[in-house]
Amino acid sequence: MTLVQLEYLVAVDTYRHFATAAEHCFVTQPTLSMQLQKLEEEMGVQLFDRSRVPVRPTELGKDIIAQARVVLAEAKKVQEIVQNQKQELSGELRIGIIPTLAPYLIPLFITSFMERYPDVRVVVQELLTDQIVEKLNHELLDVGLLVTPLENKSIRELPLFYEAFVTYINPSHALARSATIKPAQLDMDELWVLNEGHCFQSQVLNICNRGGLRSADGKGHLDYKSGSLETLKRIVETQHGMTLLPELSVLEIPEEKRLLVHPFADPQPLREVSLAVHRSFLKKKLVQALQQEIIASIPERIRNRKKEQVVAVK
Fold first, then answer.
1. Ranges for the HTH lysR-type domain (predicted)?
2. What is the number of other CB atoms lying within 10 angstroms of the CB of residue 34?
3. How many domains does the chain have?
């Protein structure tokens, strides 16, 4: 058994396709297949069910692959020990970030981070929470930027800051005259929300379930669920009703639209924004540098806020 064979084993599990795994391992498919066959013969077990498409690990194969990931992670830590002795950070940092954070958080820190660490190649992907967790578990990402808690034993969470929710209300709405809003005042039938699959949608519904109203009027003839917070803003501005937004999304809002933003009454509902890494994560110095850069980039009132009333993701 060799580390190379274990890398091939993990690659096939990750991509569930021999040709794709071989491509990512920079070898030919026959080479990869031959090495895995040798591994199976040496161990006397079948690791993959090749009759299924996509290929899937056997039940025993799943346990062996899980241990192979641990072995490979520990081997990579040897390289990291050497890397950590160097004064300058370098290498690739693969970041996954949820769409309700990406357009508002990335611009705050990415320029200063890249100027401070010019030898680091940053790769950013916008993904939903479940996709980020899956890619962290398969070592396709180094770190995730998302909302916690996740309640996932394989993921370590490093809280960064607590971001308040605000309401965004059409000027013609009755609540537009209120300085602050209470969850019990929200009318679910007048609330524009994101598509299912976004954790932000679940948090919004959790806030509204604290005594929110339901009317029989609905939203006229338009039923629109968006994948973009910016689209929700435009619908509120041009149609009617309201939506809920994260605090960072209204930091740079034009002055003429600030009258649409209404904070919640205390205690304000918050969401916990964290860095997420796999329990056996590598690149610790890079992740620590990213953590420090993000915290330094956040407005002081958000950075200094303590955990008060965090809305659960579920």
1. 1-58
2. 13
3. 3
| Residue 10 maps to a domain | yes
Please choose, from the candidates 296, 246, 283, 268, the residue with its C-alpha nearest in 3D space to the C-alpha of residue 112.
Answer: 296
Give the percent of the chain with pLDDT over 70. Answer: 89
Give the whole-number percent of the chain exceeding pLDDT 90: 51
CATH number, domain of 23, equals 1.10.10.10
Segment 62-66 long-range contacts (CB within 8 Å, at least 24 positions apart): 64/9, 65/9, 65/10, 65/13
Over range 183-197, report the average pLDDT. Answer: 79
Q: Distance between CA 275 and CA 283 in Å, rounded?
A: 13
Same domain, 24 and 97: no
Q: Would 120 be classed as within a structural domain?
A: yes
Per the CB < 8 A criterion, the answer to whether 261 and 253 are in contact is yes
Contacts of 273 (CB under 8 A, 6+ apart): 101, 105, 145, 146, 147, 148, 159, 160, 161, 162, 163
Residues 127 and 190 in one domain: no
Phi-psi region of 147 (alpha: psi -120 to 50; beta: other; left: phi over 0): beta
Residue 187 pLDDT = 81
- Structural domain boundaries, residue 134: 91-161+271-303
> Would 204 be classed as within a structural domain?
yes
Let me know: does 194 contact 201? Beta carbons within 8 Å: yes
pTM > 0.85: no
Using DSSP's 3-state secondary structure scheme, residue 170 falls into: coil
Q: Do residues 45 and 103 share a domain?
A: no
Nearest residue to 273 (alpha-carbon basis) of 107, 161, 164, 165? 161
- CB-based contacts of 25: which residues, under 8 Å, 6+ apart? 7, 8, 11, 32
Phi/psi of residue 172, nearest 5 degrees = -80, -10
